[in-house]
Amino acid sequence: MKILNQxxxxxxxxxxxxxxFKHPRIVSLMYFGTRAFNINNDxxxxxxxxxxxxxxxxxxxxxxxxxxxxxxxxxxxxxxxxYFDDIxxxxxxNFQLRSVSSSLYxxxxxxxxxxxxxxxxxxxxxxxxxxxxxxxxFKIQEYYGRCDKLFVQKMSERDLxxxxxxxxxxITRFFFIMKGGMTIKDMAxxxxxxxxxxxxxKKIFSPTLLKKLPVLLKPYSGKDSILEVExxxxxxxxxxxxAYFSHK
Length: 248
Description:
The chain is α+β, with helices and mostly antiparallel strands. The chain folds into two domains: 6-122, 2-Layer Sandwich (Beta Polymerase, domain 2), CATH 3.30.460; 129-244. 53% of the residues lie in helices and 10% in strands. The protein is built from twelve helices and four strands, in the order H-E-H-E-H-H-E-H-H-E-H-H-H-H-H-H. Strands 3-2-1-4 form a four-stranded mixed beta sheet. Helix 8 (129-150) runs antiparallel to helix 9 and helix 9 (157-178) packs parallel to helix 12. It is globular. The relative contact order is 0.10.
């Protein structure tokens, strides 16, 4: 069986979407995330967003049949779908994708457009510094909780390590944005290595944490590696608490 590369997989998925939903219904089909932006192609999932024109009760079932096709079943495919009518009624300031708030709006403006147009470019949203801080306070707390949940899920230690390091790297990105080290759109341009290098220059994190951050890029090497990154998670979180919440 021929093994497809990333671009071939995305192209096949694009064609499959067009086979189910025709152009008039597809407002946008976009590809985003660390794979799309060539930041990390090894362990990341495929983040895609499908925006259809308006609600149809059969859409959810059609999308289910799409992602369950044999050629996509084994992929870590993260397909999000929304309706343009719903987004328009709520407005860009109230954009939300599940637990992700309007902070994602600016990030999606960098997405690769596969079909249609990128509505996030067409109707841009600019958040104030206070709005960005509030949005990422929520995201850091959510991702910290995601890490807690990983420890009680049934998975191999290697998978636990991979998911744990991914979430902790995301938390460091969020904290970096909150501290003014980069913009939301910069998440599409900078790898973790880039961010860690900039953190040294801009002194975003404490010297103790800066020395430990490269550990988040190491491969799994056993239980000790899990405990090591878990300590880093706590260090990042404590710096976040110290920076943004007063202690009485």
